[in-house]
Design goal:
Blueprint lengths: L34 E3 L5 E11 L7 E3 L8 E3 L1 H10 L6 E4 L24 E4 L10 E14 L2 E10 L12 H7 L3 H14 L1
Length: 196
């Protein structure tokens, strides 16, 4: 028999609740550097993302591009939908600072406009990141969902500072060797959630 999908695996343990970090006058979208550099300003091949949804949560937080200072806030509608879905997110989820998916520009690959948000990050690591935490990561791949007619790209990445072997992965193939099924687990959760 096939393994049960995420929607069939309802969590019974208590799910942690989070609050948005206080806005401290720093824009998590504009003021956080996307590229990790050396002290000599050389490229390291690493990026930074701002975590919006901690692994294991049922709440949706977002960097708000249209608010002054781009504060990170809970999206009550998104949190309600996650709570109704009932399966905690199995990864940290956030966005790359200083990126934007323009709704007036068509994605050349899919012919769909951008989703009017920063570029999304799905962290395959198994280390919890808090709401608003800036995480150093290595991008490994990407998937594009067409959501309400818009191209909604998700960059698959690993937290390079997380404990364990996933932090050393430099490709999706490496992730499959170190944590077989991890990529599918995460993508299946997204698919199940989108269909709920």
């Amino acid at each position: 028999a096939a393994a049960p999908s995420a929607t069939q695996q309802r969590e019974t343990a208590e799910v942690p609740r989070y609050t948005a970090p206080p806005h401290e006058g720093v824009s998590l979208w504009h003021d956080v550097e996307l590229f990790e550099k050396t002290w000599m300003d050389d490229d390291t091949g690493l990026l930074r993302y701002v975590n919006e949804m901690p692994m294991g949560s049922l709440q949706k937080f977002e960097v708000m591009p249209h608010l002054p200072g781009n504060a990170i806030e809970e999206d009550p509608k998104g949190s309600s939908r996650l709570a109704a879905f009932g399966v905690p997110v199995p990864f940290n989820y956030g966005c790359f600072p200083q990126t934007y998916r323009d709704p007036d520009a068509l994605c050349k690959l899919h012919g769909a406009p951008g989703d009017d948000d920063p570029l999304d990050v799905l962290d395959l690591s198994r280390s919890l990141a808090g709401v608003g935490e800036v995480v150093r990561c290595r991008a490994l791949g990407a998937v594009c969902l067409i959501d309400e007619g818009q191209a909604d790209w998700k960059i698959l990445a690993v937290n390079v500072d997380a404990p364990g072997p996933l932090a050393q992965c430099s490709s999706i193939g490496d992730v499959e060797k170190v944590a077989p099924g991890r990529v599918q687990e995460c993508l299946q959760w997204i698919d199940d959630f989108k269909q709920s």
